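Students often ask what a holo structure prediction actually looks like on paper. The answer is less mysterious than it sounds. You provide the chain, you provide the ligand, and the output is a string of discrete structure tokens encoding the 3D arrangement of the protein together with 2'-monophosphoadenosine-5'-diphosphate.
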Amino acid sequence: MPDRYAVVGNPVGHSKSPEIHAAFARETGQEISYERILAPVDAFVSTLDAFRNSGAAGANVTLPFKVQAYQYAMHRTPRSVAAGAANTLRFDHTAAGVQISADNTDGVGLVRDICLNLGRAITDQRVLILGAGGAARSVIGALLDERPASISISNRTVSRAHDLANRFKLIVPDARVDVVESRQLIAHEYDVVINATAASLNESLPLIPTSAFAETCLAYDMMYGISPTPFLLLAANSGAVTSDGLGMLVEQAAEAFYCWRGIRPATSPVIAAMRRQAHIADRNGAT
Ligand code: ATR
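The corresponding structure tokens follow.
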């Protein structure tokens, strides 16, 4: 029996993780199975208990359960502690019982996509993060590890931006994290602008003046869809280099695969294959 993994979420039908992990397994010669599990919103723990007790080796966890996944574990990596959320769980079945470890690979996934796949530095760059929810919280630690010149957080609800900035100032004492209110963004410009809001989900645009995109700015939307989001369209019209979150999706999966299997798969072929599939789907009008 191959080791069993799954992505657990609600909804989960759209998740690309089974395809990505199947590609990694083929590429590395690892025998695994990987399924989608839809957990009822009020039954994450019992759903995960059942999967774990059936002998499963690990799980990816997606919305809305990432905080519960973190709480579910007995051991937590420092980066999952910084995020206060987990997207990867490992179940080690030992004579003494099952050890549950939590990790968060979203931040390193974003950083690898920006630095390795897109060839852009974060070090010494002025970074702006739009949004102050779970998605932003999951990536700020990894961005700080790259030693940017500064990280500014801007959010529709300003108090949440302050809470997030204060969280990281406590964790990383010399962290250059500040808050910029939306209406003050007009007075600043940034080298990297990351959309970590949920605005793209409903085709809306977070508040950002076009002047905030510095020359040769990288505008990155953590969302991935077939068509460019309103944020990416605005950024492209302002002269920025743009990227959606497909590379991050594959990179965070590669790091989870490494956490489970101890082997790091090559990501470029998988990103390219998924990009091709998306184009074909787009031409067919499928979503
Ligand atoms: P996630 O885990 O995806 O980050 P979340 O914790 O609910 O989800 O946070 C969603 C983020 O997207 C928040 O920063 C939210 O702003 P508020 O804190 O003001 O709610 C932001 N967001 C959602 N829809 C938005 C929109 N239409 N415009 C701007 N920001 C939006």
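Residues 246 and 275 are 8 Å apart (CA to CA).
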